[in-house]
Design brief:
- It is a single chain.
- This protein is α/β, with parallel strands linked by helices and about 230 residues long.
- The protein has a seven-stranded mixed beta sheet, sandwiched between helices.
- The N and C termini lie far apart (about 60 Å).
- The chain has a single domain, classed as 3-Layer(aba) Sandwich (Rossmann fold), CATH 3.40.50.
- It has ten helices and seven strands.
- This is MEST protein.
- Belongs to the AB hydrolase superfamily.
- It holds the Pfam family Abhydrolase_1.
């Protein structure tokens, strides 16, 4: 009789083959609406999705929203209307590899590239001479830190609802991200990049003259209170 693990392996192969050929689910009406209300710009032959809304009359403030992992600009949908009531212009993008932006493979995904894409979008929209607010979350926090390091003209950077690994270093949806392990592995390299470039990105937080605000919920189950705030301070 064959070992049980051999039998399991033989059974897993056809099941995996079936899974890999299951078509991705259809987009919900909300996601279809989100996509139709956005636009694309090209960054180094990659199509990058973004959404740009004109909001509050009488305000000149601009906010650019940087989403987390493994999601997309749709992260911000529930507060979009509220942001448009506060800011003159509200802008969000899908990082390359996420949401409705291109997902090249093979590709070396990096925080540096994502920061350059944000800068590219700012230039594309003709806003590179204006002051900009950044509102970032999770994966986007590290992109914001890289932008701080580059001394992007920014009024405010809000690091909201961060995950624990964001601050151990003080630092649309991906459709079926597990379908390609190499793709997922290349995206997840940002964790190693955080460790490798810790001094660069923690240093940006420590030395920046840009006003910095942290949005933190004390009941966050990932970042315990009060240890998290002590580490951040």
């Amino acid at each position: 009789m064959k070992e049980w693990w051999v039998q399991v392996g033989l059974l897993s192969v056809p099941l995996l083959a079936v899974y890999l050929h299951i078509p991705p689910p259809k987009l919900s009406p909300a996601l279809l609406s989100w996509r139709s209300s956005g636009s694309y710009f090209i960054y180094k032959d990659q199509n990058i999705f973004y959404k740009d809304s004109i909001g509050a009359v009488g305000s000149s403030d601009i906010v650019v929203l940087l989403h987390g992992f493994p999601t997309s600009s749709y992260d911000w949908c529930k507060i979009w209307e509220g942001l448009t009531q506060r800011f003159h212009r509200v802008i969000a993008l899908d990082f390359v590899g996420f949401g409705f932006s291109d997902k090249p493979r093979p590709h070396r995904y990096s925080i540096f590239e994502q920061a350059s894409i944000v800068e590219g979008l700012v230039h594309h929209l003709g806003l590179h001479h204006q002051r900009i607010n950044l509102l970032s979350h999770d994966y986007g926090d590290t992109v914001a830190q890289e932008l701080l390091h580059r001394s992007l003209q920014t009024l405010m950077v809000a690091l909201c609802c961060p995950h624990q690994d964001d601050f151990q270093q003080i630092s649309g949806r991906m459709h079926h991200p597990l379908r390609n392990n190499r793709f997922l592995f290349s995206i997840l390299q940002y964790i190693n990049q955080r460790k490798k470039h810790r001094d660069r990105w923690v240093g940006a937080l420590m030395s920046t003259s840009v006003p910095l605000h942290l949005i933190y919920g004390p009941l966050d189950p990932v970042n315990p209170h009060p240890e998290f705030l002590q580490l951040y301070k």
